[in-house]
Amino acid sequence: MAEIGHGGKEIVERILPPGEAARAVEGLTPYPVRDQIANEVIDIAYGWFTPLEGFMGRADADSVIRKMELADGTVWSIPIVFDMSEAEIAEYGVKEGGRLLLTYQGNPLAILDVEEIWTYDMEEMCTAIFGTAEMKHPGVARTCGYKEKFIGGKVTLVNRPRINPVFEPYFIPPLEMRRRFREKGWAAIVVHQTRNVPHTGHEWLMKGAWAQAYGGLPIERPMVGVLVNAIIGQKRKGDYIDEAIILCQDELRKAGYFGDHNHMTSLTFWDMRYAGPKEAVFHACIRVNLGCTHHMYGRDHAGVGDYYDPYDAHRLLQSIPKEKLNITPVYSMNWLYCPHCGEITSEGLCNHKSEWQKFSGTLIRSIVMDGVKPPRLIFRPEVFDLVMECADRYGFGSPFVTDEYLAKRTPVFTIPPLG
Ligand SMILES: [Zn+2]
């Protein structure tokens, strides 16, 4: 059965079987790629980026920048590009019509068909995507750090990544994800984008979104699932470590706050651009490919600093017709702890405003740093214990990213030698 993804395009894995891969890479010039490109090669090859079959040529990128759609009219908000310097293009003999063997960690990863070598005005690209060209915006800094030329062309994976055992159960590519959704019988799936260890505010965001997505469905059996989709990519110091994020999110299910019938945890490889509204649209596109029907959006989705109004993302999503982006945004209000009610409540519900205790990042951080178990209405005890365990096992004593973690952590995936 054909699986139809974003833009009405069939999801097809672009992956060669081992024997064929070994023959295909013979004689090709190896070119080592950095982490971001390796992540995106995997996303393209497994169908997370459907309808893209490779890195963008100029026509697609230009259309994304000017109109937030690919040249064929499919909604797309962030250029997916492969950059190379002029010196590298000369050194590796890159020519239109040729092929490059992309390697990662010293081993073959994928073949790139060189269809087009192109350039773009980077200030124009940044202003359109981020609304600013200021280098202190981390997405602008990343984008302006690209080398001066881009290579457009199809990507074919020759070697599947070997996922580190901690993350392996959560690496669920689009075709497999859709199979699992069918197996569970979910009629609606609401996705929760995260880079956090969940406190009860997050738990209730998911519970609230679950109820919203339930809408008018019959209640004979559970038919709505929450998909936690953690973004795994380049880390910044002070972020939660990846192991704590993924394991603690799943702990909410394991400890029974959700169940197999309504909750699943997974990951997507992506280096955050912090593009606010444009990134919110991009997240919607990849979650359409995962088979989700609803997407949660809170305040300032994928934003940074004060570059975006907290509800810009909502407004941009609302301006896109459903036939162009087949996922329903679920807008969430903040959940907080009200000591008067003695429970978690929403800003839109109880009237004890002066007593509310909001889950600020600073509050949660200080709780985790103290290491003293907080009330279960703030942090589930199972989740809290697991954060502490992850700090010891994977974080060199800290649940947050440190220089030591960056230098010594086990990679999320490795590329083995071919064959
Ligand atoms: Zn209250």
Automatic annotation (TrEMBL):
Its EC number is 2.7.7.4. GO terms for molecular function: ATP binding; sulfate adenylyltransferase (ATP) activity. It comes from the Bacteria. SUPFAM superfamilies: Nucleotidylyl transferase, PUA domain-like. One of its GO terms (biological process) is sulfate assimilation. Keywords: ATP-binding, Nucleotide-binding, Nucleotidyltransferase, Transferase. It comes from Dissulfurirhabdus thermomarina. Pathway: Sulfur metabolism; hydrogen sulfide biosynthesis; sulfite from sulfate: step 1/3. Belongs to the sulfate adenylyltransferase family. This is sulfate adenylyltransferase. It catalyses: sulfate + ATP + H(+) = adenosine 5'-phosphosulfate + diphosphate. Residues 6-160 form the ATP-sulfurylase PUA-like domain. CDD domains: ATPS. Residues 170-389 form the Sulphate adenylyltransferase catalytic domain. It holds the Pfam family ATP-sulfurylase. NCBIfam families: PRK04149.1 (NF003166), sopT (TIGR00339). InterPro entries: ATP-Sase_PUA-like_dom, PUA-like_sf, Rossmann-like_a/b/a_fold, Sulfurylase_cat_dom, Sulphate_adenylyltransferase.
